[in-house]
Amino acid sequence: MLVVFTGGTGGAKLIEGFRFTVNSKDLIIICNTADDFILHGLHISPDLDTVTYTLAGIADPEKGWGINDDSFVVLEALGRLGAETWFKLGDKDLATHITRTRLLREGRPLSQVTKHICAALGVEAAVVPMCDQRVATLVTTPQGDFSFQEYFVKRRWEDEVKGIFFDGIEDAEPAPGILDSISKAAAVVICPSNPVTSIGPILGVPGVRDALRQTQAPVIAVSPIIQGASFSGPAHRLMPAVKMEASAFGVAAAYADFLDAILIAREDQSLKSKIQALGIDAVAGPIRLDSLAHKKKLAESVLSLC
Ligand code: FO1
Fold it and tell me: If DSSP states are collapsed to H, E and C, what string results for 175-229?
């Protein structure tokens, strides 16, 4: 059993590699849900969907989110009616949000709803939300507090970030099966996702971090930062806001209490000894995920390190 911690687009690139290198029934993917929000009255879970669509082979390869060859007819019609259109929900993607919202309203927990959507889309891997309770990332800026999607998509991550909070995290509980799967895993992989807003909330769910510290399984991370910049999204901007160094070393240090090894970029080779001084093995190599060949290769490298 390979247990994988992930956010959305960055992590899904490595998961695309696992799709071709690991038996999908052996994959348990634990997803961030603190990016979730309500729009047009619908419950949107961007990271769960990005991962599910990736595993189903229907993800949009250009954008990294949404469904391949989707249309935006409903969004345009919503715009004509005065609704907000900054979050680009495709027509096929909307079917997922409508179904999720209906099942949640019927009283099913998010983990069950996700299982239903995965089964309907033919995904055999277990895609698990970090918790069934509402947790929401709030980004504090000089212009006010924003939800993650407002900060990231609507405001194009241009605001100066003063702080980041996960509203509701203290009352969250790991979704059913998460703690058990971490303790029984053959290996745990932390994807090259944002350590603050993607992996941070998962680690913040009470009990998850302790389970990682206690498991006998090797815990391996892939750095989302190459030479001080993230290869997907604003991680390098957000890390300093929570006093993490925006580097592969900063990522390793943030996970130091449970991490056994980290894959870093060849360009960051010089950070190896500093990371190893934390008691973490550091392996430098190609970690960019620009093509399917890169994704498969990195998945193989992670598996051999495991
Ligand atoms: N990201 C964008 O940058 N712009 C969008 O309009 C957008 C729409 C969207 C719709 C559905 C979905 O599942 C994801 C979407 N994303 C969009 C991506 C999303 O904001 C990010 O993947 C994550 O929340 C960051 O992990």
Answer: CCCHHHHHHHCCEEEECCCCCCCCHHHHHHCCCHHHHHHHCCCCEEEECCEECCE
pLDDT digits 0-9 by tens, 153-204:
999 999 999 999 999 999 999 999 999 999 999 999 999 999 999 999 999 9
pLDDT at 284 over 90: yes
Output the ligand 1 site: residues, CB below 6 A.
Answer: 7-9, 35, 46-47, 49-50, 65-66, 87-89, 93, 149, 152-153, 198
Atom 4 of ligand 1, residue of closest alpha carbon = 153
Residue 112 has pLDDT above 90, yes or no: yes
What are residue 140's DSSP bridge partners? 145, 163
Please state the pTM of the whole predicted model.
Answer: 0.97
- Residue 304 Cα distances to 11, 36, 49, 275, 279, angstroms: 18, 33, 28, 20, 20
**pLDDT above 70: percentage of residues in the chain:** 100
Torsion sign, CA atoms 39, 42, 46, 50: negative
Residue 304 CA to ligand 1 centre (angstroms): 32
- CA of 224 from ligand 1 middle (Å) equals 18
The protein residue with its alpha carbon nearest to ligand 1, atom 16, reads 65
Place of tokens 């991680």: 235
Q: Could you tell me if 271 and 263 are in contact, meaning their C-beta atoms sit under 8 angstroms apart?
A: no
Hey, is 165 helix, strand or coil? strand
Q: Tell me the per-residue pLDDT of 212-253, one tens digit each, with 9 for 90 and over.
A: 999 999 999 999 999 999 987 899 999 999 999 999 999 999
| Helical (H) or strand (E) element with 41 | none
